[in-house]
Prior knowledge:
Strand order of the largest sheet: 3-2-4-1-5-6-7-8
Order of helices and strands: EHEHEHEHHHEHEHEE
Mean pLDDT: 86
Distance between the termini: 31 Å
Largest sheet: 8 strands, parallel
Low-confidence stretches: 71-79
Amino acid sequence: MAIPFVHRLTLLTGHYGTGKTEVAVNLALSLAAEGQRVMLADLDIVNPYFRSRERRELLEAAGIRLIATSQACTGADVPALPAELLALLEDRTARGVLDIGGDPSGARVLARWRPQILREDHQLVYLVNANRPEVRTPETAIAYLRAIEAVCGLTCTGLVNNTHLCRETAPEDIRRGAVLAEAVSRETGIPVLCHTAESRFAGQLENRPLFPMEIRMKKPWE
Length: 222
């Protein structure tokens, strides 16, 4: 299928552990493979693990410019936003993928750049993972979504079912996540853009739009 993220800037948000970084890295690589100029901003100042910057060599080999916090010390997690982010927001010849930290506290980094973001073609995307206990019901998932919107001052325009159990994911997990994402969509009126899964699950999602991915992020002990 065609890449379902069509706006110039894609801001990926969601509860901690929903898999935003995996989606961000795969999306950036897919856009670059289409020949587009791509910048990926690692703006997660909450979680020291599963950071886009951990795949710097892979991204830069694909021609993707990585913008990350704490670049001088990749083992630290300093809550400072890179000034280079302004280049991503203002360069309309490039596609931008913004990997935002989990929960409302992580989304707070967007508030600083809200005026610039609102001037650009952007989409705030909320990832749903039915395997996260805190957001496994429509009510709790919507509550987190609304809290993120309130903190960053932006409106969510798309949902993505990214339900997974890392390498233990089964088709049933993805289908269960699809049911959750579709319930959230009915309650909020926000469309489900796609369902993400490893390429090996293609054809198992009952005609739901799939954004196929490869596992790029590894646990710290792997």
